[in-house]
Design goal:
- With 402 residues, the chain is of the alpha+beta class.
- It has helices at 5-8, 86-110, 137-152, 164-169, 235-255, 262-296, 314-327, 356-366, 388-401; strands at residues 3-4, 14-25, 28-33, 35-36, 50-52, 55-63, 66-71, 79-84, 114-119, 124-128, 157-161, 181-186, 195-200, 215-223, 226-233, 303-306, 332-338, 341-347, 370-373, 377-382.
- A 6-stranded antiparallel beta barrel has the order 2-3-7-6-5-8.
- The chain is elongated and about 100 Å long.
- Bound molecules: zinc ion (ZN).
- Zinc ion binds next to helix 2.
Length: 402
């Protein structure tokens, strides 16, 4: 059985060990050591990386109590010098212990229990038993402040095996499942036992909460009956701020304003956009009325025409022209082409008359597309725009026959 050095000292990054066996894990070389400071993937925390006798360690797995160090290179033998990647370990300690403090804060301020934890490449998540609707922005900010209060007070952290009596005396946040190792955050200045949080855990933890640096809650969303909370700690808070700053900078350059003016300028741009879309719609209808007037003047009978839409929105334009012609008492078969696609709108005055829904369906099939609608107003479209004139002529012929 490998002696797990990381359990008693998460600050130990360089150590000597003896290779006791070499194995293969999923086609890769792996070695077993008599003692190791490498943390194997588990409890939501990824594996440590580093080197063994200079050979890169790319994964560490706990295989039924045996710790397999997966190597990117040939397996060394005998006495070896080992080095854990300190930056990666510190990042994992910050995220992992930050999670303990955040879970404690959710429990203390919202009575929300943590069901699971995931330490991702960029951000971390915890799943809570509290519905997302109860975790609005104010609630999240309050929990975040409570968790950071534990960080900023730089409280002592102890992670060790406890006796049955010690376990019984602690307000454990969850029941121990594997062994009696408990991570205890205490407040020496508090009354009573002074325990801020006690949670069974086999992960790597700092000596004091201050090493977490800071905790930033990024958001919460519905997750089953509960919620999933996304957060980052320590160095990742700085990285998240840098990313936010870069995104805000890009948006500010696009809108030609200072980052601080973005909320007001973006709101105004959205309002302007909506107003312009409305105006385009109004102009489209006005132009359709003019077009219908012009077409209605070209003699009696059904009006068959291919029109040119003045702006994106051919489907809306042909419909408006056809409807305007119908309002003038005419039967209208109107088509237009936009971006290589043909659009159709057939309309007639209400009351007795041919079923234009069926007529437009047949015309759309001729365009290799689909169509349909009511007897007096129907629309269709298809990709075979070269057949538009022929499809309209065929529809007019069918009208004359009916
Ligand atoms: Zn832990």
């Amino acid at each position: 059985m490998t002696h797990r050095l990381y359990l008693s000292d998460s600050g130990l990054l360089e150590f000597e060990a003896t290779v006791t066996a070499a194995r293969e894990l999923s086609g890769r070389t792996a070695v077993l050591l008599d003692r190791t400071a490498f943390y194997p993937e588990g409890g939501g925390q990824p594996a440590d990386h580093g080197t063994i006798a200079g050979v890169p360690v790319v994964d560490v797995q706990d295989d039924g109590g045996e710790i397999l160090h997966v190597l990117d290179g040939p397996a060394p033998a005998g006495q070896v010098a080992c080095r854990v990647d300190g930056a990666r370990r510190r990042d994992h300690v910050q995220q992992h212990h930050g999670q303990h403090l955040l879970s404690a804060a959710f429990e203390a301020t919202r009575s929300a229990r943590t069901l699971s934890f995931h330490l991702g490449e960029i951000t971390c998540t915890i799943d809570l038993d509290a519905p997302a609707a109860t975790l609005g922005d104010d609630a999240l900010r309050a929990v975040e402040a409570a968790a950071n209060d534990l960080v900023f007070r730089d409280l002592p952290v102890v992670a060790r095996e406890l006796s049955a009596e010690e376990l019984a005396a602690l307000p454990l946040r969850k029941a121990p499942t594997k062994g009696a190792r408990v991570v205890v955050v205490s407040d020496p200045g508090a009354a009573g036992v002074g325990v801020v949080d006690a949670s069974p855990c086999g992960g790597t933890h700092p000596r004091r909460t201050g090493e977490v640096g800071a905790i930033a809650v990024l958001g919460a969303q519905k997750w089953g009956a509960g919620s999933r909370v996304e957060f980052v700690c320590g160095g990742r808070v700085v990285a998240a701020l840098a990313q936010a700053r870069s995104r805000l900078g890009e948006a500010a350059r696009a809108l030609r304003c200072a980052p601080a003016e973005l909320p007001a300028v973006a709101a105004r741009a959205a309002e302007d956009g909506a107003a312009r879309r409305k105006e385009v719609e109004r102009l489209l209808l006005a132009l359709a009325a003019v077009e219908a007037e012009r077409l209605a003047g070209q003699g009696g009978g059904a009006v068959r025409a291919v029109v040119v839409p003045p702006a994106p929105g051919a489907a809306a334009f042909v419909k408006a022209v056809a409807a305007a012609l119908a309002a003038r008492g005419r039967v209208a078969l109107v088509g237009a082409v936009e971006d290589g696609r043909a659009h159709l709108a057939f309309a007639r005055p209400r009351g007795e008359g041919p079923h234009l829904g069926e007529l437009v369906r047949a015309a759309a099939v001729a365009l290799s597309g689909k169509g349909g609608g009511a007897p007096d107003l129907a629309q269709g479209s298809g990709p075979d725009a070269s057949r538009l004139e022929a499809a309209l002529a065929e529809a007019e012929a069918a009208l004359t026959r009916s």
